[in-house]
Specification:
Layout: H1 2-34, E1 47-51, H2 62-75, E2 79-83, H3 91-104, E3 108-113, H4 126-140, E4 147-150, H5 154-158, H6 174-194, E5 199-205, H7 209-217, E6 224-230, H8 247-252, E7 258-264, E8 268-272, E9 275-279, H9 282-298, E10 303-309, E11 328-332, E12 338-343, H10 345-357
Parallel strand pairs: 1-2, 1-10, 2-3, 3-4, 4-5, 5-6, 6-7, 7-10
Antiparallel strand pairs: 8-9, 11-12
Length: about 350
């Protein structure tokens, strides 16, 4: 009798344990499905934004950054795309100050996270490096930042030749692709662990769908696609791949929301007074922004945002060369500090588009 009771008790415990284990697994599976993000469960309003940074005009200046944000606010955008600065002794302090200034204007952030350029990716565990970055940054900004771009233009960074179209997987250098893939994979999983509500954006450019296909095949999780598009690439809505498929249809097939992360016209090199200069064709810049934004809005069933690169001409780089991509020029103050200058035609064009479609 005693043995019978022991066996019976063991059976009861086993059955109960199995039942609760089953319930736990069902719950975990339901939670996982609930956290899977796709085009069908994206409910955020359309994002009108610009790319800019606190070191665009000078070496880092919080005072000038606030002046930049004032111009962005006057433009009417709701979103600022900026890069997490990892190259400081206390990066959180620097980035916290930048974010507080953004929030002061009631603007929201798309934060670009890239691997610290001081690290040698051939000598480190890139997955762990990415996971640590993603988890630490997303944990710190949970509830404040909801959109993270994971690296920038990975296809362009790993393609064999810049003249290639990037439409097939064999056009990328494995020795460059694999470290970046591992970093992004770690970054993605670190962000998801820290903040299940965050949207993880993978960045591509031109027709580099082969890069996206490689990420999918390698089971790198991402929630959105960010595309960079410039005037030389032609009208986005008319672009066909070599296999005859429309680029827009291919991008839609990933079942992920699409955002235009960088849109602009390439500046032209000209000679003036025997000096080489890079100048903006304001008409071409306005036309590119207007046509691409109109297409994006008309296809807002799967296009969920539009960002111009960039708000200002960037003048802060090691060679002090000017990159004329701004829809606002720059000028020097009487003290020699670079400050926001006059809006270009493209600023007015973009501002009118935002007014036209905001709230719809």
């Amino acid at each position: 009798m005693k043995k019978f009771l022991i066996v019976l008790l063991a059976l009861i415990i086993g059955v109960a344990g199995g039942y609760f284990a089953y319930k736990y697994l069902v719950k975990q599976s339901a939670n996982k499905k609930a956290n899977v993000k796709s085009l069908s469960n994206y409910t955020e309003p359309f994002q009108w934004g610009v790319t800019m940074g606190p070191s665009d005009l000078n070496r880092y200046s919080l005072e000038i950054w606030k002046k930049q944000l004032k111009v962005a606010n006057n433009l009417g955008v709701g979103w600022i795309r900026w890069r997490y600065d990892s190259e400081n002794p206390d990066p959180f302090q620097r980035n916290d100050d930048v974010l507080k200034s953004v929030e002061a204007y009631e603007l929201q952030t798309v934060l670009i996270i890239e691997q610290d350029p001081r690290k040698d990716s051939s000598k480190i565990d890139n997955y762990k490096d990415g996971y640590d970055d993603g988890f630490n940054i997303a944990s710190h900004y949970k509830g404040k930042i909801k959109f993270y771009q994971m690296a920038n233009e990975g296809g362009a960074a790993t393609i064999k030749e810049p003249t290639m179209n990037g439409q097939t997987e064999d056009q990328f250098v494995e020795d460059k692709y694999k470290p970046l893939r591992d970093y992004i994979k770690g970054l993605s999983e670190g962000i998801a662990k820290a903040d299940q509500d965050a949207w993880r954006i993978v960045s591509s450019a031109y027709t580099h769908v082969g890069y996206l296909d490689k990420l999918v095949k390698d089971k790198v999780d991402f929630d959105m696609i960010g595309i960079d598009w410039y005037d030389w690439m032609g009208p986005f809505g008319e672009k066909k791949l070599e296999n005859g498929q429309m680029l827009s249809d291919k991008l839609k097939s990933y079942n992920k929301p699409l955002t235009f992360m960088e849109v602009n016209a390439i500046p032209e090199g000209k000679t003036k007074n025997s000096k080489s200069q890079t100048v903006v064709d304001e008409n071409r810049q306005s036309e590119t922004i207007s046509n691409t934004a109109e297409w994006a809005w008309k296809n807002k069933d799967y296009v969920k945002g539009f960002f111009v690169l960039s708000l200002f001409d960037g003048v802060n780089n090691p060679n002090e060369n000017v990159s004329y991509f701004g829809i606002v020029g720059v000028k020097k103050s009487s003290s020699g500090v670079v400050v926001p200058g006059d809006p270009r035609k493209s600023f007015d064009t973009y501002q009118e588009l935002i007014k036209k479609y905001s709230g719809q």
